[in-house]
UniProtKB/TrEMBL annotation:
<feature type="transmembrane region" description="Helical">
    <location>
        <begin position="369"/>
        <end position="392"/>
    </location>
</feature>
<dbReference type="InterPro" id="IPR001046">
    <property type="entry name" value="NRAMP_fam"/>
</dbReference>
<feature type="transmembrane region" description="Helical">
    <location>
        <begin position="113"/>
        <end position="135"/>
    </location>
</feature>
<dbReference type="Pfam" id="PF01566">
    <property type="entry name" value="Nramp"/>
</dbReference>
<feature type="transmembrane region" description="Helical">
    <location>
        <begin position="185"/>
        <end position="205"/>
    </location>
</feature>
<dbReference type="GO" id="GO:0034755">
    <property type="term" value="P:iron ion transmembrane transport"/>
</dbReference>
<feature type="transmembrane region" description="Helical">
    <location>
        <begin position="334"/>
        <end position="357"/>
    </location>
</feature>
<keyword id="KW-0472">Membrane</keyword>
<feature type="transmembrane region" description="Helical">
    <location>
        <begin position="147"/>
        <end position="165"/>
    </location>
</feature>
<keyword id="KW-0812">Transmembrane</keyword>
<feature type="transmembrane region" description="Helical">
    <location>
        <begin position="311"/>
        <end position="328"/>
    </location>
</feature>
<feature type="transmembrane region" description="Helical">
    <location>
        <begin position="79"/>
        <end position="101"/>
    </location>
</feature>
<feature type="transmembrane region" description="Helical">
    <location>
        <begin position="42"/>
        <end position="67"/>
    </location>
</feature>
<keyword id="KW-1133">Transmembrane helix</keyword>
<feature type="transmembrane region" description="Helical">
    <location>
        <begin position="12"/>
        <end position="30"/>
    </location>
</feature>
<dbReference type="GO" id="GO:0005886">
    <property type="term" value="C:plasma membrane"/>
</dbReference>
<feature type="transmembrane region" description="Helical">
    <location>
        <begin position="272"/>
        <end position="299"/>
    </location>
</feature>
Length: 396
């Protein structure tokens, strides 16, 4: 019995890590990584390294406070200042909906690549039906965990194959990771915002809360899960970076209409192009699941009716995202911006967690590590500054 409980607990932790990671790995993630690699070449490795450090600092602060307080982020915010949690929830849901429109579009594109006879809109509708089906089954949480784990492993494996096929200059990439030729603040904000901004950083934390992995006794597991989620997403980013670098370092120009598809096709031919379709679909559909689940988890405690009809509201969220995509088409220009815009929510959500970490009415006699608090404050200040810089300099 004890072995089964430990196995189930490990499955939940791994599921939470993959939910967070696959929520981050969406169409925007693929596009951002490829575009910035083409712009910065091997120096993009430095941007990835800095973003990983910032991501871990954010994730550890957020997940630990959620676990210790045994409360959702919006409830924590409302305790700090009545109405703040409602504002945070609204921002998260709006950001999640914007992400989901792009995610649904990405799923449709992936299906179109795999099955050229199906239009992106038909592919999007079919993908939405699959995502809805996951939430309608009795044990939706367990199915969601397995679904994200399997597709997460698949994405990394396929991208690793393409990375090998493109023969990237690994030595130069490793060197420039620590000695970059150029640094781009917009790229850092976009990567951090796309990995732990908006709803994404709360995806795994809220999943653990729902599964009962909470309290001070679970902190070691929560910490491991938080770091694992970042490392999984970062592994995918590194593989894609190397794949793109192998192509662009040969002087080949990527198709500006679909840069990540270019990488897969140029590195591995028509097989690579089909692999891109599969990776794009897997990245998009898992992000649809993560976005819908986490966005609704932010409003479910605001009113009893929302909690009662949680699954129905998740379904409506997915249907609404699909309907908007079908009406306006894929918002290509927003794929880079959406990560950066999500980064603007990060200083607010991280600030809430850092304040909560030192409020006894929320965390009791738990003492948040000083180094984590200091690290969190530095990240908050850096991200706030870089977000302002980004909004003043980014263009469509």
């Amino acid at each position: 019995m004890k072995d089964n409980q430990q196995k189930n607990r490990w499955s939940v932790l791994l599921g939470a890590a993959f939910l967070m990671a696959t929520s981050a790995i969406g169409p925007g993630f693929l596009t951002q990584t490829t575009v910035f690699t083409e712009q910065l070449l091997a120096s993009f490795g430095f941007i990835i390294l800095i973003s990983i450090l910032l991501d871990i600092g954010v994730q550890l602060n957020v997940w630990r406070i959620i676990a210790v307080s045994e409360k959702r982020a919006q409830d924590i915010a409302n305790i700090l200042l009545p109405g703040l949690g409602t504002l945070l929830a609204i921002l998260i849901v709006i950001g999640g909906l914007a992400f989901n429109i792009a995610n649904i579009g990405g799923a449709g594109l992936g299906v179109n690549v795999l099955f050229p006879g199906m239009s992106p809109i038909m592919g999007a509708v079919a993908s939405a039906v699959i995502a809805i089906g996951i939430f309608l089954v009795k044990e939706a949480g367990k199915l969601m965990d397995k679904f994200t784990q399997i597709l997460g492993f698949l994405m990394i494996a396929l991208t690793l194959y393409v990375a090998f096929a493109s023969s990237p200059p690994v030595g130069e990439a490793a060197y420039r990771t620590f000695v970059p030729e150029k640094i781009d603040m917009i790229a850092i904000v976009t990567l951090v915002g796309g990995t732990v901004g908006g709803y994404i950083t709360f995806a795994g934390g809220h999943r653990l809360l729902e599964a009962g992995v909470t309290g001070r006794s679970a902190l070691r597991e929560v910490t491991n899960g938080a770091v694992s989620g970042i490392l999984i997403a970062s592994l995918m980013r590194i593989m894609l970076f190397l794949a793109a670098l192998g192509v662009v370092s040969q002087g080949i120009q990527l198709n500006p209409d679909n840069p990540p598809a270019s990488v897969f096709q140029l590195a591995a031919g028509n097989i690579g192009y089909k692999l891109f379709g599969l990776v794009m679909w897997a990245a998009a559909i898992t992000s649809v699941v993560g976005s819908a689940y986490t966005s609704v988890s932010f409003i479910k405690t605001l009113h009893p009716v929302i909690k009662k009809y949680e699954k129905t509201i998740i379904v409506i969220f997915i249907i609404l995202s699909t309907a908007v995509f079908a009406a306006i088409g894929k918002p290509v220009k927003l794929l880079i911006l959406v990560g950066a815009l999500n980064g603007f929510i990060l200083p607010l959500s991280l600030g809430v967690m850092l304040l909560a970490a030192h409020k006894k009415s929320i965390i009791g006699d738990y003492r948040h590590p000083k180094w984590l608090t200091i690290f969190g404050i530095i990240i908050l200040a850096v991200m706030a500054y870089m977000s302002v810089y980004t909004i003043m300099n980014i263009t469509l």
